[in-house]
Amino acid sequence: MIKTKSILATAIVLAGISLNSVIAQTKESKMDNIVMVGGEAMYPMKDIVSNAVNSKDHTTLVAAVKTAGLVETLQSKGPFTVFAPVNNAFEDLPAGTVENLLKPENKAALSGVLTYHVLAGKYSYSDIALAIKKGNGLASMKTVNGQSLTFMMNGMHNITVKDEIGNMSNISTYDVMQSNGIIHVLDKVLMPKM
Questions:
Q1: Which of 43, 142, 152, 182 is deepest in the core (most CB within 10 A)?
Q2: Looking at the structure, do residues 24 and 76 belong to the same domain, yes or no?
Q3: Which pTM does this prediction carry?
Q4: 3-state DSSP call for residue 174?
Q5: What is the rounded distance in angstroms from the CA atom of residue 162 to the CA atom of residue 160?
Q6: Which residues, in sequence order, are bridge partners of residue 40?
């Protein structure tokens, strides 16, 4: 009886150690997917908005998302692929563009520009690169706003995105995993036909 209890106690201790090891490995593997954006860690267990608000490089985008009333949408289950322009990209737009879009009376236009940066579904670098290969060098994907973006390779590991009016943007950071999708960082703002 004592020997049986001893064996049972040893088994319980070993099972506990094994379980703790599995938990630690799971936490570690989730930490492996952390990407730094705007000087801050982007945690794959957080949603798109919860991560984006921490990026110092995306304060203009976050302000625009809030003004357009898209926070709740981008915090929903998704999945979404977001092409997130950095602050400098907004500064490169013609003078007054951002200020004009942020006016309450232009909420619909602002929403149209922002949803033009979103695809329904989760598309990693590999997914987009494969689509480009299958499309003989070009891949067209419909955005949430209804218009399309065109993707093409620009070198061995760089994807360029072309908007409907011919502007080009490079993806500078790929595969920032989120609980409800994925973010790719852009160096230019993409503009839909208005």
A1: 182
A2: no
A3: 0.80
A4: strand
A5: 7
A6: 37
